[in-house]
Amino acid sequence: MIRRGLASLCALALLPGFAALAQEVPEIRILPPPSGEVQPTPAPETPAEAPVPAPRDATGPAAAPLARQRFLTLRPLAELPRRVAMGASLPEPGVVRLTGEVAESEFALWLPEGMALPETLALSLRTSIDVLPDTAVLQVRVNGAEPVDLPLGNFAGFGALEVPAPNLAAGMNRIGIALSQPHRIYCGPDASFQVWTEIELARSGIEYPVDALEADAATFSLAAGNRIAAGHPLTLLADQDADPATIRDLATALGGQMQGQGRVAIRSFYAQGSGGGASVALIPSEESRISYRRDGTGAPVLQVETAGGALPDLTSLLLPEALPQPRPVPVLVPGKVQDLGDLGADDIVANTHYFRRDIAFRLPPDWLLLANQKAQIGLRYGFAADLPKGAMLLVKVNDETVRLLPLDREGGRLLEPLAIRFGTRLLHPGLNNLSFEMMVPGDPPDAACAPRRTDMLVVTRDTTIEVPTSPAMRLQGIGVPLSGLTAAGIKVGPGATEPGRMALVAAELAAGLTPPETPDDRVRLRLTDIAGLSQSGDGVPARVVQDALLPASAPTEAPTEAAPAAPGPRFRLSEDSPPPEATPAIAEATPEDGGGIGGWFAHQRERIRDAAFMSSGEALGDWLAGRKGDALLMPGPADEPQALQLILGPGADMDRIGDTLNALRDAWLGEGKAVLIANDGTWQVWSSARLPRMEGAVTPLNLLPVLGNYASWSPFLFTAGLLVFGLISVIPALIIVVVFRKRRIR
Question: Per-residue DSSP letters for 336-359?
Answer without folding.
Answer: S-EETTTTT---EEE-SSEEEEEE
